[in-house]
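User: Teach me something about this protein's shape.
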Amino acid sequence: MKKTHTSVKLITSTALLLAMNIIMSMSAFSIPVPGGHMYLNDVIIVTAAILLDPLHAFIVGGIGAFIGDFLFYPAPMFVSLVTHGLQAVIISLCTRHLLHGKKIPASVIGAAIGWVITVIGYTFGRAYIYSTPAYAVLKLPFQILQTFVGSGAALLLCWKCGIVKFFDKIIGIETYTY
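Assistant: First, the predicted structure itself:
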């Protein structure tokens, strides 16, 4: 396959995942919890991080979450940019470079590190934005649940449901050892 076709497909896939992240940032796709909502965009962020290189993963994770917050709830938009951006980059790097070709365990490790980054980032971010650690502590169990569910669902979608193989076939790049 020609490189230009691959580039167009990669950009289109990135844009589609970015749009999905923004849509999943809406309250309509969230679960109400004490102190706010539990969002399902972590599924998209982790999936994109497994599928895409670190730059494109950052665009989907960080910039997508930033735009979603900007449109629907602007207070934590910079926290989302940094936290989800870093989460996506770390997962992408782990999936590609950790454990020398064992992509499934490498992506699980990356998702676990991303889970820690997200929980810590949002806990400190909320404490700073809302000037009260009590609010951050109130949301902590739901942040842990959101990140755990999102990462678990993304790992299942990518590896058990075959999204990685499908993505590689569509994009035309064989980048994974199964």
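Now, about its shape. The mean pLDDT is 89. Residues 156 and 162 are 9 Å apart (CA to CA). If you'd like, I can walk through any region in more detail.
User: That's plenty for now, thanks!
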